Amino acid sequence: MRFFKYLPLLFFGFMYSQEEAVQSVYFQTAKYNLDEKQASEVLDFIIKMDSTRIESVQIYGYTDDIGKQAYNYKLSLNRANTIKDKLINSGIKNKIIVTIEGKGRILIDDDIVENLPEVRSKNRRVDVVLNLKPLPKIEIPGMFTGIQKNHVLGDRIYLENILFEKGSSKLTFQSKQELDKLALALQKYKKLEFEIQGHVCCTPPYQKEAIDKDTKKRALSQNRAETVYKYLIFRRIAKNRMTFKGYGNTRPLGRGAEYDRRVELIITKI
Fold this sequence. Notes:
Number of strands: 10
Structural class: alpha/beta
Strand order of the largest sheet: 1-2-5-3-4
Radius of gyration: 32 Å
Shape: rod-shaped
Distance between the termini: 44 Å
């Protein structure tokens, strides 16, 4: 039987949640030896777990409520040690097994418990508890209007004031002023690398790219991206930090045509 559970634990007065994965191994009455099937199941349980997340292993032995307390305590400890020996002999490092404990018998009220034999069979067991490290935090790329102190891969920098006249890839005076500010931020965060992405609007559905009225070639979004690339080089941003590419009309913002005549930066290395 394999299952996962989340238990609140009290630690130095603070409450937090730790993830555990538990595998139970069941034994015959008064026995503490393992058969091949049981041994295989408990080993598979650990092997299939992400080993980078296993922080420690705890082993707890139990018995049913039949017999004397001292006998059951010893039996439960023998069961726990049987599992420990099997894990170590199979290559599990001893140092991560932090607890080996016999809990003794599990008392039940046999007057009200239904199917008493089955309940007792579930109590003749060892629980192997894997304490798991938290899953790594997944950082989702976001959209910004300027360079941030902390970026993640895939962040988009929408240069909201770097807009172009219809059919043109030439920078306006206002756009150059904005790129000057951008260059200063990029000089501050020198490890950032990025792709400059050019975009266009208003082309027919069968034409993804638009014609640049200055070059007369259907490469307007590419030219817009390259114009920004060249201007940033002029402002002493290293070439090896940048690439550029035109995406035509394939990525509209849905805010109107003037906003699609734009250039964005996509963070590719931090």
